[in-house]
Amino acid sequence: MNVSMGSASTPSLDRRTLLFGRDDTPGIVSVAADRRGRARVWRRVDGQVVHEEDQFPNWFFLARRELLEGLPVVDLPISILDGRPRIEPGTIGLVKLRGTNPFQYLVLTDRLEEVEHAAAEAAARLLVDGVITQPISDLIYVRPVVEQYLTITGRTYYKDMTYADVRRLQFDLETTGLGAEYGRIFMVSIKDSAGFEIVIDTQSMTEADLLRELARIIRERDPDVIENHNIFDFDIKFVIKRAQVLDVPLPLGRDGSTFSEMRDNVKIGANNESFTRYSLTGREILDTLHATRRFSAIQRDLRSNGLKDAARYFGVAAEDREYVPGADIWKVFQEDPERVRRYCFDDVEEVDSLSHLLLAPAFALASIVPKAYERIATAGTGQGLIEPLLVRAYVAGGYSLPVARGTGSYSGGRTAVFTTGVVHNVVKADIASLYPSIMLAERIGPETDEMGAFLELLAELTNLRLQHKSDARRQDLPAEERAYHDAMQSAMKVLINSFYGSLGANFALFCDKTAAERVTTRGREILQLLLDELERRNVVLIEADTDGVLFSLPDRPDGRPWTYEEELEVIEDITRAMPTGIHVEHDGRYRAMYSYLEKNYALLDYDEAAKAGFRPRDPIRLVGSSFKSAKTEELIQRFLADSIKLILHDDFPGVRDHYRATCSALRNREVPVEQLCVSMPLTKSPEKYAAAKRKEEPYEVYLAAGNSKWKAGSRIYYYQAKGAKKLISAGASDYDPEHYINRLRATCKQRLERAVSGEDFETLFSESDGLFDTPVGAIRPLRETHRNAMDVEEKDEGAGAEES
DNA sequence: AACGGACGGGG
DNA sequence: GTGTACGTCCGTT
Known about the structure:
Blueprint: H1 15-20, E1 28-33, E2 38-45, E3 48-55, E4 58-62, E5 73-76, E6 92-96, E7 105-109, H2 112-128, E8 140-141, H3 145-153, E9 168-175, E10 185-192, E11 197-201, H4 207-221, E12 225-228, H5 231-245, E13 260-268, E14 271-279, E15 284-287, H6 288-298, H7 307-313, H8 329-335, H9 337-365, H10 373-376, H11 382-397, E16 410-417, E17 419-431, H12 434-441, H13 453-472, H14 479-504, H15 513-536, E18 540-545, E19 548-552, H16 564-577, E20 584-597, E21 600-604, H17 607-611, E22 620-623, H18 634-648, H19 652-667, E23 678-682, H20 686-692, H21 697-704, E24 714-721, E25 724-727, H22 737-751, H23 758-764, E26 783-785, E27 792-795
Parallel strand pairs: 5-6, 9-12, 12-15
Antiparallel strand pairs: 1-2, 2-3, 4-7, 4-8, 6-7, 9-10, 10-11, 13-14, 16-18, 16-27, 17-19, 17-20, 17-26, 18-19, 20-21, 21-22, 23-24, 24-25
Helix pairs in contact: 6-9, 7-9, 8-9, 9-14, 11-14, 12-15, 13-14, 14-15, 18-19, 19-22
The chain binds a DNA duplex through residues 137, 172-179, 183, 228-231, 233-235, 237-238, 268-272, 289, 293, 297, 300, 304-307, 324, 326-330, 506-507, 625, 630-631, 680-681, 683-684, 692, 694, 696, 796-799.
C-alpha cells in the first residue's frame, strides 16, 4: 500500500540503489570526515592502500525553516538530490522536500558547526518564547559525519571486497598485572592476515622499546582493521597508559595521529552497554569480546565470553594450545618464557579465528549500510542499521522524514504448552521468516513511509538473501566465495529480521505500533492456522512459540515408524493450506521427548540422526535452564540424563535397575570420588578470610585438610564424607553413600515429576520390591494435556519489541 | 539459610 | 533516550 505513493514525477530508486547506495566505488576500507565538508577516504586497490581527499556537503534534516533565520540561506532545487549533490564552498543550502512528514527540509552545508549551533539556539529560543513545543530532537535530525559522507555520496565500505581482502591485524599484550596504574607490559604478540607473525618481549628490549616496536610494526604492516579480545577495555587502555608513562609516541593513525577516545554504546541483546571507544584515523578497531557477547546474548549456550572459552566453544582452539592461568603469567615468564610466548601467540590466533566466525556478517553489512564497519559491529539493528538505510533512501529520493512518535504497548507472539510428559514421533515445524513474510504478503509497513522504501528494501533483501544462500551452498565455487555469500546471506538475515523490530521500537523514526500490532495479530492467526491444520491431522500438540511448534505424530495402526520423507509430506501439505507467502519448514525430528516446562524439555534423537554425519552429539539433549545446575555433582547430572533416556525408551525396569545399581555402587564405594565432588573457588586470600571472621564451607573444608595457605581464586573440589565434607583425594572412598542417594532422589523426584507419577517414582526409586507396588513393567509414563494453554506475550514499548 | 548486590572481561 | 537481562557468586545478616 505504501509502494509508489509518490506522483509520476517522483524519482524512485531502483531496488539495488536502495540497498547498496548509488556509488559503487570499490575498496573503501576507512573514512574520516569533518564538519566542513571534507572527507578522507582510504581504499585498497589491487592490494595497495590509496588515500583520497574528497568533498561533500554535510547535511541534516530540519523541521522548520525559521530555525535558520538570520543565516545566509540559499534555496536549492530538489533536483540537486538526483545525483551526488555538490555545493559551492560556504553555502548554507536548503532543499524543500517532498511529502508531508515533519522533517520538511534538508540542509546542505560545509559550515555544519555554525549552522547546527545556530539552529539549536533558535530552537531553544522559540521553545522558551512558547512559539514551538516540540523537543529539539523533533526539529533537527543529524547523523554522525562519516554516515553523512557515506549517505550523501551513496558510498559504503568494502564494495567488491571479501573478508580476506581486508588486512586485519591482531595484537595481544601480556602484562605483570591487570591494572595499568601499577602493571607493566612485558610481551606483545602480533599477527596479520597477510602472514606476518611475531612475539616480542622484554627479554630482548625495554618496555619502552617494546611499545616503539609495536607502533613501528603497526605502521609498517599498515592494517585496515585492528582487533583483539577486550581491546577497548584492556589492551589499548594499557598501551596508552604505559606509553604516556614511558614517553613513547603512538602515531598509529594513517595520518600519523594517535588514538582518539569517546564514550559509545555497544548493543548486546536487548541492552545497551556503555564503553570507551578508541579510534584511529584510517583504520577500524574491532573487539571480539563485543562480538562474542552479542553472539551469546542470542545463543545462550555459550557460557563464558572469555577468549579461551569462546575459542573452544567454536572449535577453533588448537589441540596443542598453550594455557597459562592469568595470575601465573608473569611468574611463568621468569621460569619458562617460551611457554608464555606460545600462549601469547595462541591468543592472537584465536582472536583471528573468532573474528572470521563472528565479524564476517558485520563486515558484509558494511557494504550495504552507510556506516563505518567498527560502528556496525556494535550497532543495534533498528536505529543502528534499518534507519540509516531508510534515511539514505529518503535523502536520495528527496522525501521529508518522519519523527519517532511511538507510545504504548501491544500484544506480541503467542506461546503455549499443550502437553507435558512423554511423547513420541516428535516433529518441530517452523514458519519461515514469519513476520517478514506477513509484512510482505499483507503489504504492512510504516504509515509514515511515504516513499515506500521500507517494503521495497525488505522485498529486495528477501530476494537477494535467497540467491546468496543458494550460492553459499554451490560446491563449484571456491571456498572464499562461498564464505562471502554466506556472510552476505547472514547479514541480510540480520536486516530482514530487524524490520519488524523497527516498527515496534518507540524511538525508531519509522515506528508504527498499529502496523506492528497488525503483524503480530496476523502472526497469531497464522500460528493458529498451523495448529488447526496439525490437529486436523490428529497430531498431539506439545508446545508452540510465536512461529514454531513441536508436535507428536500418532502411532500408526500397522506400527510402521514415520520416515523423514513422510513428515516432510505432512508439512508440505500443511504449507499448501497456509496463506500465500507463508512457508512451513521441517526443523527437526525426534524419536521421543520429555516435555517438562515451557522451553524446558529433553529430546531423544533417532539413532540414524546421530549417525547421519551431522555434528556428533549426545543421543539425548536436555534443553532449558531447569535441567542444568552448576552445583550438581557429575554422578547426579549423569544419572538424571540416563534416567530420562531410559524413560524415553520406555524402559522402566531399566530405570529401577539403574537406580539400584547406582545405590549399590555408592554403598560399595565403586563410584569414583571425582563424580561426587562439587567445585568451589576460594576467592578470598587466607588473610582476607581470616579477617572476615565468618565461616564458609569451602574454606573450612580446605583448612580441615591441614592447609593454611592458598592462592586467592584457586578452585577446590570436595565431597561429603561421613560426618564431614572433605577435600578430594585420589581414590578416596570414605564418602557418605546415604547423602548422595538422598540428593539423587530429591533431584530426580523434581525433574521427573511430569514423566512419572509420585507413586511410580517410589516404585522406581526403591531398593527393594514393595508388596503392593505396581509391577515395574506395567508402569506407564505420564502424559498430561493442558487445555487453554494460551498465552500472549505483551510487547512493551521499546524493550523486547526489538527482537522478532 | 535467605537475601540483596555485583559481575560478567583482560594479565 | 530510558528502562532494563540473567544466572551465578559474594557478602551480609
